[in-house]
Amino acid sequence: MSSAAVVNYAPEKGCVEIREIERPEIGDEDVLLEVANVGVCGSDLHQWTADHSWPVNYPVVLGHEFSGRIAQLGSRVEGWHEGQRVVSETAAIISQNNPMTRRGLYNLDPTRKGFGYGVNGAMTKHVCVPARVLHAVPDALPLERACLTEPCCVAYNAVVKNGRIEPGDRVVVLGPGTIGILCAAMARLCGAEVAIVGLEADRQRLEIARQYGCETIVGDAHSWAMQRDGLGCDGVIDAAGASATLKLAIDWVRPAGWISKVGWGPQPLGFNLDPLVQKNVTLQGSFSHNWPIWERVLALLASGQLDVQPIIGGVWSITDWHTAFEKMHSGEVVKSILTPD
Ligand SMILES: [Zn+2]
Question: Which residue among 155, 166, 247, 293 is least crowded, i.e. fewest CB within 10 A of its CB?
Fold first, then answer.
């Protein structure tokens, strides 16, 4: 039995197409997951436009933000049942003996391989998932929203674990993509006053960000950051990733403040870091997420404290992937979601 899949087949620009693929064979410790919904990530777009910076195992099925139901259990899988509603983390392959894995930080295992680039992802009907990365989806949470647990976990790690917010802090978020908006939402949950900053072309996405109770700024957030005492904001979350935004973050953060950098960008910096030293600022990277973060985010989504509905721009069939990708690429929608036929 074969199904349509969104396949990235070569490292050149535009090398994504629908292919019929066979239903995957599962191992003893895997489940076969029948995909309900899969979010399109910025990284899927980067592999499509071939401006990504990570190794891809071509040909590969795209998609790592997904929800579904268990269709089949491997012989050694315990504690799960067929038909169960689940989401999956992204760490498809890790080394159990890596020192980072043994600390529970398998997201930082350098040998880790994820869905959608290292192994086949979820933009198709069935995906093979190790039981180790499954999480049960609470009844109150529809699968269409549950598929966005993954980017919420990225935001949780960047804001809650790798930032340090006290109620009443003022926090600037750079970049109104999915991760930036979810970081803004998370900072609001932590009790901060939040401004999210974008460019002229981001006006539509900033409008959506406003629904999370943050201020939106096109261009220069200097005066917002300097309100209160003129020294700068307490923290900055850089979800844009260009070198220029890190410079803004260093300018706008107050002495002894912090910057959590979750956005990627291949460019060298091209500016002096002395202000970082002089202001005694903490510059903190944030990458991926792990098991406890997933459990916590699912609780926030199920209780409604965190709502992803405002960022969902539409749900398209797998075979309409091109429309879904285009709408996100142009910034017309924040997040596109696919569903198998
Ligand atoms: Zn993603």
Answer: 166
Number of other CB atoms surrounding residue 201 within 10 Å: 10
> What distance in angstroms lies between residue 40's CA and the mean position of ligand 1's atoms?
7
- Three-state DSSP class for residue 187: helix
Among 51-60, 266-275, 313-322, the range with the most confident prediction by mean pLDDT is: 313-322
In contact, 6 and 61? CB cutoff 8 Å: yes
Q: What is the Å distance from ligand 1's center to 210 Cα?
A: 22
Cα–Cα distance between 156 and 161 in angstroms, integer?
7
* CA gap 2, 12 in Å, rounded: 26
Q: What are the pLDDT digits (tens) for 153-163? A: 999 999 999 99
What are the residue ranges of helices labelled H in the chain? Answer: 42-49, 99-102, 143-146, 149-156, 178-189, 203-210, 222-226, 243-252, 274-278, 291-303, 321-329
Q: Is the pLDDT of residue 242 over 90?
A: no
pLDDT digits (tens, 9 = 90+) for 122-140: 999 999 999 999 999 999 9
**Token code pair at residue 291:** 């098991």
**Angle CA 205–208–214, to nearest 5:** 105
Tell me how far apart the alpha carbons of residues 131 and 128 are, in angstroms, rounded to a whole number: 9
Separation CA 195–CA 193 (nearest Å): 7
What's the gap in Å between 121 CA and the centre of ligand 1?
11
The structure's pTM equals: 0.97
Ligand 1 centre to CA of 65 (Å) is: 6
User: Of 224, 228, 199, nearest to 236 (Cα)?
Assistant: 224
Residue that has been written with the tokens 């959590």 in this structure: 260
Q: Quick check: 35 and 338 in contact, CB under 8 A?
A: no
Spacing, Cα 159 to ligand 1 middle (Å):
16
HSE-CB of 253 using CA atoms within 13 angstroms: 29
- CA dist 300 and 114 (Å) reads 24
Query: What token pair was written down for 272?
Result: 């002096």
